[in-house]
Amino acid sequence: MKNYTPDNRGPILEIKDLKVYFDTDEGLIKAVDGIDLKIMKGTTLGLVGESGCGKSITCLSILRLIPSPPGIIAGGEIIYKGRNLLKLSERDMEDIRGNEISMIFQEPMTSLNPVFTIGDQIKEAIILHQKKGYSEAQGLTVQILDKVGIPSPEIRIKNYPHQMSGGMKQRIMIAMAISCTPEILIADEPTTALDVTIQAQILDLIQSLQDELGMSILIVTHNLGVVANIATHVAIMYASKIVEYGSVEEIFENPKHPYTLGLFTSIPIIGEKKENLYVIPGNVPNPLAFPNGCKFWPRCLFATEICKVHEPPIEEIKEDHKVACHFKLWINKYVWKEKAV
Asked: Where in the chain are the domains?
């Protein structure tokens, strides 16, 4: 787990009561429904949860890339360096996207434009944001490709995406994201579809770049091993809500929410024999028909009548640890183990 020093000057990015809805033919989908997050300067926040819980929508909202229609940011604030990004003009946002806040999108195989060379795709941001000429941008692109571990960058700069492997394409995406030395890097499942060895290389690369450039990072994943390796803080997301938040050390040592505990129990432990790996019962709820009360109660081992009626707010149980559960004060991994076995 990564060591960190909190920045006492306040968060570089703070999300307050963010709500993102989609108006579809089937009905209103509340993809993100009132979440709070903060990222301190130079630290890494891991955003964890099952597919469809709202992680990627949260990231896209920061850069105001939600497609509208059908999407709409229905409420909340996204404060970056004292400014609410949701109130800025599109022109001001263009200055921030890729320059001060960059994003590594999922699936590099589909995120790169197949008809342009990788050099042209990286140079575009450098020319736009750093106001460099073509020749200078070309030189900077070669340096960036070398920094992210692309061999023979002066040759590879002329290649098209189809001429590169999946791991190299992911490195190209990282090169594009850091080309303007952003303050914040958003990495949306940056190791998806990569083998284990390449995953480790990509994570090491992101960490080394953070140490070199001083970036703050928001990394989206459903892999708790990735979080333990790279993050300083972690937010657990379920069905449009943050259900637990805290430092990585605190969450891994003292998880409190039944969903968080279920995620940890589902991880195989090397050397420990199990007939069957634990599986959280039930399925992720349909976003068009979320259950009343706590959204996790149909799958929760501890659910009672109050859970079915009243949705628990996320509350601080100790410094740097927040939980949204009616029974957060007495549930722990030992109580969970007795119940889950």
From this structure: 111-181, 258-340
| pLDDT tens digits along 139-194 | 999 998 988 888 999 999 999 999 988 888 888 888 888 888 899 999 998 877 67
| Alpha-carbon dihedral angle through residues 159, 164, 169, 172, given to the nearest 10 degrees | -30
Q: How confident is residue 6, by pLDDT bands cut at 50, 70 and 90?
A: very low
Q: Report pLDDT for 8.
A: 46
Tokens 């303007």 belong to 180
Distance between terminal CA atoms of the chain?
A: 28
> For the chain, how many helices (H) and strands (E)?
13, 12
The predicted pLDDT at position 4 comes to 45
Pairing of strands 83-84, 71-80: antiparallel
Pair of tokens at residue 227: 């979080």
* pTM greater than the 0.85 cutoff: yes
Task: In whole angstroms, give the CA distance from residue 207 to residue 256.
Answer: 28
What's the maximum distance between 2 C-alpha atoms anywhere in the chain?
67
- 3-class SS at 277? coil
Q: Is 78 helix (H, G, I), strand (E, B) or coil?
A: strand
- The whole-angstrom separation of Cα 248 and Cα 235 is 9
Q: Residue 25: which residues within 8 A CB-CB, separation 6 or more?
A: none
Q: What are phi and psi of 31, to 5 degrees?
A: -70, -40
Packing angle, helices 258-265 and 333-340, rounded to 10: 70
